[in-house]
């Protein structure tokens, strides 16, 4: 059964996550405030960031970089700046 939350990223009601995807208090905040749709948008950015910056998810420093970008993107309204990436023309 899906749950509806007020997604703070989309600023509207949307389908919430089925379970907590991220550990700790940040994970709880994502579960409560970030919809599946917003999380998918972040996952796309995350993939580009990992590839562009050649981040290693086994490296704690790289995980910190990614977490900071995730917080900026999901909660601070800051888009992820990807070097050499040009968004497709609308």
Automatic annotation (TrEMBL):
Keywords (A to Z) from UniProt: Iron
Name the family the entry cites: Belongs to the Fe(2+)-trafficking protein family.
One Gene Ontology BP term is: cellular response to oxidative stress
Q: Does the keyword NADP apply?
A: no
As for what it does, the entry says: Could be a mediator in iron transactions between iron acquisition and iron-requiring processes, such as synthesis and/or repair of Fe-S clusters in biosynthetic enzymes. Necessary to maintain high levels of aconitase under oxidative stress.
Kindly provide the name given to this protein in its UniProt entry: Probable Fe(2+)-trafficking protein
Organism per entry:
Candidatus Pantoea gossypiicola
Supply one GO CC term from the record: cytosol
Show the PANTHER family listed in the entry: FE(2+)-TRAFFICKING PROTEIN-RELATED (PTHR36965)
For this chain, one GO molecular function annotation is:
iron ion binding
């Amino acid at each position: 059964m899906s749950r509806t939350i007020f997604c703070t990223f989309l600023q509207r009601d949307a389908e919430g996550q089925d379970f907590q995807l991220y550990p700790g208090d940040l994970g709880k905040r994502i579960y409560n405030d970030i919809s599946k749709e917003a999380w998918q948008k972040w996952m796309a950015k995350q993939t580009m960031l990992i590839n562009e910056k050649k981040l290693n998810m086994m490296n704690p420093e790289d995980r910190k970089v990614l977490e900071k970008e995730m917080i900026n993107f999901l909660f601070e309204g800051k888009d992820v700046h990807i070097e050499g990436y040009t968004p497709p023309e609308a």
